[in-house]
Design brief:
heterodimer; A: 419 residues; alpha+beta; MetI-like fold; 3 domains; three-stranded antiparallel beta sheet; 9 strands; 46% helix; elongated; B: alpha/beta; D-Maltodextrin-Binding Protein, domain 2; six-stranded mixed beta sheet; 19 helices
Chain lengths: 419, 451
C-alpha cells in the first residue's frame, strides 16, 4: 500500500509531466504569436513561425543591370556580382530558370544548348538541352535526351550560359544582343530575419496616442462604476431582509445568460432618445449594465459567506447597515472586489463590439481595439504581423493591472476573526 | 470629475484631428489630365460651409487614405467637412447604426445585397430626382447599373438608391510574365487553350493553379466567383439571371455542371498548388504568393482586380506580374462575358450636403482622383482614361467597358443567407469532397426554407 493518505504517491511524476505538457500546450499559440510579431508579412506567408529561427535556403531572382556588356564572337557577355556591387553572400546554387534555381553549384557553368536529336525511327528533330559542367572543361553531353532520342553532339549550339563563383561573381553569355536584363537565379542561405518594424508601425502610427487615452477614458470609469453599484446591491441582497430578495437574486442570475448582443440596438436607440447618443458617457453606462449581473452575483456570493457572528455583533453594538457595509463588509470583501475589477478591466480593455456601437465612428473617438482592427490591419486585413504585434502591445496594460491587483487576492483574510 | 474627463478626452481628440486634417491633396487643382472644368463649376455652385457629411464604409487602411483624398477635394470645393470612417465589420455596424437612429449621412456598401435589405426596411433614402436617368446615360451598360441600384422600399415600390462607385473586374487570371516567358507558354485566348496550357504545365513538371478559399468568416467566397465565371461561360446570361433570382433552382443540372467546371481545376491534385485539400485551407490573401515563389509553386491565379494589394511588397503589375482575361469557350459562342462587383453609395440620412456629395460623386473628376491613385475602376464613360495610374489598370478598365456581357457577382445579389452563407460553406464542402449535386441540393433547401 503505497498510496496511503499523507505519503507521496508514486504517480506524482505523472502529474508533473501532464502539468508541464498542458502548460506547453497552452503556451504554443502565444509563442507563435510572439515570434510572428517580429516577422514581416512576406516572411509569415513564406514559412511557419517554428522555422523562423533557422537559416533557410532561399532562391532569388537577380536581374543585373546591363552595364559593360561586351561582344565576343556573336555572343554578348555580361560580368558582375550576383549580390550587386555592395552586397555579399554565399552562393549555394544557381541556374537560369525559375523552375530550377539551383541547377548548378558554384564553380560550374550552367548552359543551354540547341541541339539536334535523332529519334528512334531516324527522323532528326531539334531540342533544348540544359546541363552543368565545371568551368574550363567541355560540356559532357549525355548519349540520349529524356525521351530516349540520340543526341547529335556535333550540332550543339550554345544558346546561353552562366558561370558563378561562391562569392557571387558571375559571367553570363547569351547568343545575339542583350536587350533587357536577363533573369538569373541564385540560392543562398539567408539568416533568420527579425525586426521591430511591426511594433514601430503600431506604436508610432498616427492617432495611436489618442486611441490609447480613449481606451483608458472608457476602461477606468467602466470598471469603477459597476463595482460601486454592485457592492451596494450585493450587500443588500446578502444581508438585508426584504420581500422579494430571493426573486431579485434569481433575476440577476437569470440575466447572466442573456447575450449582450441582444441589447445593442435597443440600448443605442434609448441613448439617442434621451440625448446621450454615441458618447463616452453612453459607453460607460453600457459597460456598467453589461457588467453588473456578474458583479452582483460574484460579490453577493462572497459576502453571504462572511461569518454572521461578526455582522451581528456589530449590529448589537449599534452599527447601522451603512456602517456595517463600509466598516466591515467592504474591507473584508476586498479579494472579491479585486478579482471582479480584474475581470471587468480585461473585458472592457479588450472590447471591440461595444466600442464600435456606442462610440462615434470617427477616428478621434477610436479606442485601441478599433484602431487596430479598422486602421492598422490594412485593407481586408492581410497583415498578420501587425495583428500579432498589436496583441502584445494591447496586453501590456492588462498584465500590469493583473499583477498589481493580484496581491489583494490574498487568502485567509478572515483567519482567526471568529472563535 | 467625469465631465472634466469627458471634456479632456474631447479636447484631445479635437487636437489630434486637426493635426492631420490638412495637406493630403495629392493632385494640384487645374493640373494633369483630370476633368477640372466640372470640378470648378461644382465648386462655384455649392457653398456648404459649416455643414458636415458623415460617411461610413468598408474601405480601411490604405484604401481609406485614398478615399479621404478624394473627399478632401469635396471639402475644398464646398467648405463642408467630410468625416469618413472605415470599418472592418461595416456590414454589422451599418445595420446597428441605421436601426438605432445614429446613422451616418452616406454609406458605401461593398455589395448591393445588404443595401437592398436596408432599403426594404425603410432605412435608406432614395437618390435625388433624376439620378437613375443620369446613371443610365453616363455609365457603360448604364441600365444594368440602374437596375443593380434599384430596390423595393418598405412599401414595395422600386426606387433608385445606389450610385456605384469603384468597380472590380473579377474575370482576370494573374500570372508571372517572366515564368511564362522562361517556360515558353503563350497566353490562352480560349477556355480550351487554357485547359491545354494547364495540362502542359503539369507535363512540364509544374503546378498550374493557386487557389485559396480561406477568408475568416467568409471562407469560400473565392469559389463562388469561380462558379459564377463558369456559369457565364457555359450558359447564356439569361440563365445566369434566373439562377440569381432562384427562378432556376440551385440544384439544376446547369448549375451543377458549372460547379463541376470549377472542380475540373480545383479538385485535381495535379492542377492545384498543395493538392485539392489545400484549396479550402489556404487563405485567399496568401494564395497568390505562389506566383512569386522560386521555383514557382503555381503559374496562374484567378482573382479580381483588387488582388495586387496582397502581392509581396515591391511587386510591379506589368513587370513582375500581369493578367489576362479569363477566357471563354470558343465552342460555346457566348461572347466574352465579364464578371464584376462593386461598391455603391446610398443615403442613410439625407441632408443638403449629402445631396451635394452625391452630385460630386457623379462628376468625372471624383472618379479620376481615385483612378490616379491606383486600385480603382469605373464604368463612368465621361472619365479620362489617361488618368488611370498604370497601363494595367487602363487595360482592366477596357475589359470592363468592352465586355459583350457584364454580370454582377451572383453571390452578392442573392439573399444574404444564401450568397453570404450557404453558398460559401457549400463550396467549402464541395472542395473537400462532397459531390456537387449534394451541395447544390443543400443550398436549394436553405433557399426554400427562407422563402
Amino acid at each position: 500500500m503505497d498510496n496511503i493518505a499523507g505519503t507521496k504517491s508514486s504517480l506524482s511524476w505523472a502529474v508533473h509531466i501532464s502539468v508541464v505538457a498542458l502548460v506547453v500546450l497552452w503556451l504554443i499559440p502565444t509563442v507563435g504569436l510572439l515570434v510572428s510579431s517580429f516577422r514581416d508579412r512576406d516572411a509569415i506567408t513564406a514559412t511557419g513561425w517554428w522555422l523562423s529561427p533557422f537559416s533557410v535556403e532561399q532562391a532569388y531572382r537577380v536581374q543585373p543591370e546591363l552595364d559593360g556588356v561586351t561582344e565576343d564572337n556573336g555572343y554578348s557577355v555580361l560580368e558582375g556580382n550576383l549580390f550587386g556591387a555592395e552586397g555579399s553572400g554565399e552562393v549555394s546554387g544557381f541556374g537560369i530558370t525559375a523552375r530550377a534555381p539551383n541547377a548548378a553549384s558554384p564553380g560550374q557553368v550552367y548552359a543551354r544548348f540547341n541541339v539536334d536529336v535523332e529519334e528512334p525511327d531516324g527522323t532528326i528533330d531539334d531540342t533544348r538541352l540544359e546541363l552543368a559542367y565545371p568551368v574550363g572543361s567541355d560540356p559532357a553531353f549525355p548519349e540520349t535526351d529524356d525521351d530516349g532520342n540520340r543526341i547529335l553532339t556535333d550540332t550543339a549550339v550554345l544558346d546561353r550560359s552562366l558561370e558563378a563563383q561562391v562569392n557571387g561573381d558571375f559571367r553570363y553569355v547569351s547568343e545575339g544582343e542583350l536587350r533587357r536584363a536577363p533573369s538569373l537565379y541564385v540560392t543562398s542561405l539567408s539568416p533568420p530575419r527579425f525586426s521591430l518594424e511591426n511594433y514601430r508601425t503600431i506604436l508610432f502610427s498616427n492617432g495611436m496616442d489618442v486611441a490609447f487615452i480613449n481606451t483608458f477614458t472608457v476602461t477606468i470609469p467602466a470598471t469603477i462604476i459597476p463595482i460601486l453599484i454592485a457592492a451596494f446591491a450585493a450587500y443588500a441582497l446578502a444581508w438585508m431582509d426584504f420581500k422579494g430578495r430571493g426573486f431579485l437574486i434569481a433575476m440577476v442570475v437569470g440575466l447572466l445568460v442573456v447575450p449582450l448582443q441582444l441589447a445593442l440596438v435597443p440600448l443605442l436607440q434609448l441613448h439617442n432618445k434621451v440625448g446621450i447618443g454615441q458618447s463616452f458617457l453612453g459607453i460607460w453606462l453600457a459597460h456598467t449594465g453589461f457588467g453588473l449581473p456578474l458583479a452582483i452575483y460574484l460579490l453577493r456570493n462572497y459576502m453571504v459567506g462572511l461569518p454572521r457572528d461578526i455582522i451581528e455583533s456589530a449590529k448589537v453594538d449599534g452599527a447601522t447597515d451603512f456602517q456595517v457595509f463600509t466598516k466591515i463588509v467592504l474591507p473584508l470583501s476586498f479579494p472579491a472586489l479585486a478579482s471582479f475589477a480584474i475581470f471587468q478591466f480585461l473585458w472592457v480593455w479588450n472590447d471591440l463590439l461595444v466600442a464600435k456601437v456606442f462610440l462615434p465612428s470617427n477616428s478621434e473617438s477610436w479606442v485601441m481595439t478599433v484602431k487596430i482592427a479598422d486602421d492598422l490591419l490594412g485593407s481586408r486585413g492581410g497583415d498578420w504581423g501587425i495583428l500579432a504585434g498589436a496583441a502584445f502591445i494591447s496586453i501590456a496594460v492588462p498584465l500590469a493591472v493583473f499583477f498589481t491587483m493580484q496581491r489583494y487576492l490574498v487568502r485567509g483574510l478572515l483567519a482567526g476573526s471568529v472563535k | 470629475m467625469t465631465a472634466r474627463l469627458y471634456a479632456g478626452a474631447a479636447a484631445l481628440a479635437l487636437f489630434a484631428g486637426m493635426a492631420h486634417a490638412d495637406g493630403h491633396q495629392p493632385f494640384a487643382v487645374g493640373e494633369g489630365g483630370f476633368s477640372w472644368d466640372s470640378f470648378t463649376a461644382f465648386a462655384d455652385k455649392y457653398d456648404l460651409s459649416g455643414q458636415t457629411v458623415e460617411i461610413t464604409g468598408a474601405w480601411t487602411g490604405n484604401e481609406k487614405e485614398k478615399v479621404d483624398a478624394v473627399f478632401s477635394y469635396f471639402e475644398s470645393a464646398t467648405g463642408a467637412t467630410v468625416n469618413y470612417s472605415g470599418s472592418d465589420s461595416f456590414e454589422q455596424d451599418i445595420v446597428i447604426s441605421t436601426r438605432s437612429g445614429s446613422a451616418p449621412n452616406l454609406a458605401a456598401f461593398p455589395q448591393p445585397g445588404l443595401a437592398a435589405d436596408l432599403a426594404s426596411q425603410g432605412l435608406l433614402s432614395p437618390l435625388p430626382e433624376g439620378s437613375a436617368a443620369w446613371i443610365a446615360d453616363n455609365y457603360a451598360a448604364g441600365q444594368s447599373w440602374v437596375d443593380l441600384g434599384t430596390y423595393a422600399d418598405a412599401d414595395g415600390n422600386d426606387q433608385t438608391y445606389g450610385l456605384f462607385y469603384r468597380v472590380d473586374v473579377k474575370s482576370l487570371v494573374w500570372f508571372s510574365p517572366i515564368a511564362f516567358d522562361e517556360a515558353g507558354y503563350d497566353i490562352p485566348e480560349t477556355m480550351e487553350e487554357l485547359k491545354e496550357l494547364t495540362d502542359q504545365i503539369v507535363d512540364d513538371g509544374g503546378t498550374p493553379w493557386c487557389i485559396g478559399l480561406g477568408s475568416g468568416a467568409a471562407t469560400g467566397w473565392p469559389a463562388t466567383d469561380w462558379v459564377e465565371e463558369m456559369m457565364l461561360r457555359t450558359q447564356p446570361p439569361a440563365v445566369y439571371d434566373q439562377w440569381v433570382s432562384n427562378e432556376m433552382k440551385f440544384d439544376d443540372p446547369a448549375i451543377i455542371a458549372a460547379m463541376d467546371e470549377f472542380g475540373y481545376f480545383a479538385l485535381n491534385d495535379d492542377y492545384v498548388d498543395g493538392g485539392s485539400t489545400a484549396v479550402a485551407n489556404t487563405d485567399f490573401r496568401d494564395s497568390p504568393a505562389g506566383l512569386f515563389a522560386i521555383p514557382p509553386s503555381c503559374y496562374m491565379h484567378r482573382q479580381a482586380s483588387f488582388i495586387p494589394a496582397f502581392f509581396p511588397e515591391g511587386t510591379e503589375v506589368g513587370e513582375d506580374v500581369d493578367f489576362f482575361y479569363f477566357p471563354a469557350y470558343e465552342g460555346k459562342d457566348l461572347g466574352k462575358p465579364v464578371l464584376g462587383a462593386g461598391a455603391l453609395f446610398a443615403i442613410t440620412n439625407p441632408s443638403e450636403a449629402t445631396n451635394a456629395m452625391i452630385e460630386f460623386l457623379k462628376l468625372p473628376v471624383s472618379h479620376e482622383l481615385w483612378m490616379a491613385q491606383g486600385g480603382f475602376l469605373t464604368p463612368h464613360k465621361g472619365v479620362n482614361p489617361e488618368t488611370y495610374a498604370s497601363d494595367s489598370l487602363r487595360a482592366q478598365g477596357e475589359i470592363l467597358l468592352n465586355a459583350t456581357t457584364f454580370r454582377f457577382d451572383a453571390s452578392d445579389l442573392m439573399p444574404g443567407e444564401i450568397g453570404a452563407g450557404a453558398f460559401w460553406t457549400g463550396m467549402v464542402d464541395y472542395t473537400t469532397g462532397t459531390p456537387a449535386a449534394d451541395v447544390a441540393r443543400g443550398i436549394q433547401e436553405r433557399w426554400d426554407a427562407i422563402q
